Amino acid sequence: MAIITISREMGSGGIPIVHQSAEELGYTLINGDTIKDVASSYGLTAEALQQVDEKPPAFVEKLDRQIELNMNRIQLIVLEQALKGDVVIYGRGGQDLLPGINNVFRVRVIAPFEERVERWAVREWIDPDLARSLVRKSDQQRAGFIKYYFDRNWSNPIDYDLIVNTSRLSFETAVKMIVDGVKDRNLVEKKSAAKAKLRDLIIQKKIQIVRLADERIEDIWFNIAVKEGIVTLTGHVYSESEREAAIDDARQVAGVTDVLDNLKIVGYRDDPQDM
Asked: What's the pTM?
């Protein structure tokens, strides 16, 4: 079971490279179209996808919670597709969704800014100044998305196994490097081990979704860890009722075998009954 994640800069040529790589390998491509096709079954509307996909938060408390909920739904789609194996995940923070899984081949496609602007202007038949604005905005949004949701510098080279500069290398060469690279023996992991880790990540994501949708819980920033179906909750909540709700949310997710409660109640907010 191999997984390729491809991060790209707008105008770098990522679109043809990712399609050709998936086709040559016979892998399933997970991209925006894949997500749109199944979005409704995950409670996602077209408007929700447009609002949250690869964008940083709005920094409006109520709106951000809904954005966070929809973002987790998108991430669940990616994880459940990845569980099938032999996939290419295009964007969406794919590599950051798969911590601890050793058979992930992490690719980044880049090119100089002005060259990307020129390519985008030609591709979209638009004025170069407009293309320059769109490419710059895309860079800022994607960098902000990765930084906010995964606390990672989008352009840090150490986070990738292969970086392809399409200013110097052809798309065909890029595809060949990806096809050859994913077969490297250092990326081999037993299928059973990879699937077990992915199943735990899926359980974790489902609990996060239930938690975000649960109006009984005001504070959503406690931590959820899952190993072999055992859930560990750590961090703080504001009341005993929130603690019970958090445990209840975890227990209702399929695949959970036990819930370990390490939550602390931090009662620094006034109890409404005392007001």
From this structure: 0.89
